[in-house]
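Re: weekly structure request thread

Next one in the queue (208 aa):
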Amino acid sequence: MFLRAVVLSACLAVLPAQAITDVGDAVPLYSEAELIHLFEGNQQLQRVRADDCQLVQDIEARAERVESPAYQFLYGDMLAWGVCVSRDVDLGLYYMETAARQGLPSALEQLGRYYARGTLVQQDQERAIPYLREAASMGDLRARIQLAELLLNDFGSPRDYEDAYRWLYQTATADRQVHQKITKLRGRLEQRMPSNVIARAKRRESFW
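Done, posted below.
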């Protein structure tokens, strides 16, 4: 009887260590640069899922307490689509809007895209324009393309043609298909713009 008790105690002592081994290594918290890279490829939700939702509490804390715009956007996206948290579209959009007001290009682009397409919100292309314009001015490639497409579909104002053209003209990309798309959009905008405005849009502010 004594021997059985000793053996049972030894087995119980081993189990916690074995359980810890089965869990695997802890997932490190994402850096801001890493999140921006994930946003650019729209891979943020896939990454959270791939990490088995281990960072939910850290993400929530950095969104709510630290008020990091990158984490606010990530947390808002998780809430809006119910990834690793209970789905709450209104709260998700609130955090996306908060990140957008802090000037996060990815949040501005996504909200603009959502309004343009009617994703989660009522479709409103005119309301999409300010989001996309702001993101485009900050260098967001997707926003620049979407803004030009909306303008060419007669949304927004012709006064935005010059800026939309300038941002496309200044965009560099190694993707051949994207490059061709930008060239076509520029060509279509040129058909609606006076030659002097086109020349002004091409003018560089600085050569350094």
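Confidence is low (pLDDT under 50) at residues 1-23. The CA atoms of residues 63 and 71 lie 5 Å apart.
Next request, please.
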